[in-house]
Specification:
Length: 96
């Protein structure tokens, strides 16, 4: 079965604070994955990196067979969705 998403040895820091240190993940097509952990452990950063809302310092993220840094952002974001933690980010819109 093919992987729809691969994160290979991803590193992301905010200043001198490492948030993702050699983080790897493989998600198969149609597979459901839950990322859990305490506040500040990097869960949202993983999602923000996949959506290219945050740039990674090292590693590779591949979505649907293409490295995301080589894909047009508007095309990528038509295929990947994200619900922000702060539900009232857009008060005129709902998740639905």
């Amino acid at each position: 079965m093919n992987h729809i998403l691969e994160m290979q040895s991803v590193c992301k820091s905010f200043g001198s604070v490492p948030v993702l240190n050699n983080f790897s993940l493989k998600v198969r097509d149609r597979e459901k994955v839950v990322i859990i952990g305490p506040s500040g452990s990097g869960k949202s950063t993983v999602l923000r990196c996949i959506n290219q809302l945050e740039a990674i310092q090292l590693g590779t993220i591949i979505f649907d067979g293409q490295e995301i840094t080589k894909v047009d952002l508007s095309v990528l974001r038509m295929k990947i969705g994200m619900v922000f933690q702060r539900f009232n980010l857009f008060p005129h819109k709902t998740t639905l």
